[in-house]
Structure to design on (68 residues):
């Protein structure tokens, strides 16, 4: 089912995730969503399913390039 995350699919994002007293930003590429979860690729081959109820925010991940 398509939901509020459909516009983010394929984009580099930062998910703000909360569980209990723990708040964590997760950086990766949003791959897909179902009724209950979003799938985030954190590393080249590490896909993680995150319950939508744990996501409190999402934003574009803006890569920063440092030049010497």
């Amino acid at each position: 089912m398509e939901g509020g995350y459909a516009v983010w699919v394929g984009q580099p994002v930062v998910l703000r995730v909360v569980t209990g007293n723990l708040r964590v930003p997760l950086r990766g590429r949003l791959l897909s969503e179902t009724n209950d979860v979003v799938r985030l690729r954190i590393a080249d081959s590490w896909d993680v399913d995150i319950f939508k109820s744990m996501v409190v925010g999402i934003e574009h991940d803006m890569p920063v390039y440092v030049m010497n």
User: Anything to note?
Assistant: The chain is about 0% helix and 55% strand. The first strand starts at residue 12 and ends at 19. The two ends are 46 Å apart (CA to CA). Strands lie at 12-19, 22-33, 37-43, 46-51, 55-60.
